[in-house]
């Protein structure tokens, strides 16, 4: 991989530009669909539990395919992988755009996911081998700008399209851009790769799919079905057993599909832990805030998207600045300040009321996004910086896989907590209302009282979930104090005559 793109000391800006545009439209597509789910339910006449598969299925395909990207990046050239990734994404987008039945829409969405799963690890790996450590923070910062800009405009753009056009226009809007990127990549990407004699171990693929897929599906289903559902705990058990078997198999293989040896490097292990914990806390805002503003406050999807927009834009604009600061001062100061901001603002989100102002929500969410922007990319880059070059594909694949899993776990925990606490508060509020009720209550008054109780109970459930997310963010803050500035570790394989050939093959 390194030799296939790095012919001189000058980074391959042309390749990076094409990859970033491809990554941008895949990230944009991820955020476009969420706000369209109610429209899809009505048009295709499907239940909420069914339409949810458009997001769950996308996440499952990512969780299954991302672990294989370490092998793919070592085996194939950037051109080869990019054209496959953007080609699959384009095919999936066209199929979804013309789908008039839910199975076709789901199939298109999952084909999109198979392309998206390759794109991000590929781009991150190219950036790692293209820039020296002292300039890597700035480079990753601009990558973060692309990654955050798509979610920034996604909900607002989606809300506008849904209000003015059919939901299929979301896919028709992306299709011509994807086709242009595919053609540009086909004609401009010219890198080649020396033939590498490695084979994919299909038992490892099977165990990885069952392990990560089982965990993702189990935790994703927990919020809807409850932890006592066999569909939940059996898939989680299967996932854990398969994952343990997968890890043990990888540790015995000379050329593992996904090398868990990356966790022997302390800064990488620490950065992965912080990213996972922060991911779980971050989902509180992404998940609970839309529920609060739309369900409890009755704010329209368009206005809800606009409310999230300033924070997302601030997060995107801060990414290059944070990258430059990382190159100068390292990751610890940024992570500690950012996580302190995130923890404090998450706590204030646990104090929401029925009359919290729209402006207050915008300001608080924007400050929270500012804190998160100071953590995600610097922490991840600092961890990857410690790895020898041949571990880059494994490090990027591991980070992306763990982000998927931690996101699913965080979502499940927070949804379950919100649901359980809502029921508890509803029971308490109903008992309190009955205690103070005098005389007969009309049916309309009883219905109105019940609705008010449920709204108040859901509000308290959301506040409780935010309060727990505060402690989760606090754990990441404590871990951040142990960050040290990373230097690339010398590859131990290079010192061994029998390992020298393997190390060179991996770099190629």
TrEMBL record:
Membrane topology, record value: Multi-pass membrane protein
A GO MF term: transmembrane transporter activity
GO cellular component, one term: plasma membrane
Keywords: Cell membrane, Membrane, Transmembrane, Transmembrane helix, Transport
Pfam families xrefs: MFS_1
Gene3D superfamilies linked to this entry: MFS general substrate transporter like domains (1.20.1250.20), Multidrug resistance protein D (1.20.1720.10)
InterPro entries: EmrB-like (IPR004638), MFS (IPR011701), MFS_dom (IPR020846), MFS_trans_sf (IPR036259)
Major facilitator superfamily (MFS) profile domain segment(s): 15-488
Transmembrane segments annotated in the record for this chain: 12-33, 53-73, 80-105, 111-130, 142-162, 168-188, 200-219, 231-248, 268-293, 299-317, 329-349, 465-483
Subcellular localization(s) per the UniProt record: Cell membrane
Family named by the database record: Belongs to the major facilitator superfamily. EmrB family.
Record protein name field: DHA2 family efflux MFS transporter permease subunit
Organism: Cytobacillus depressus
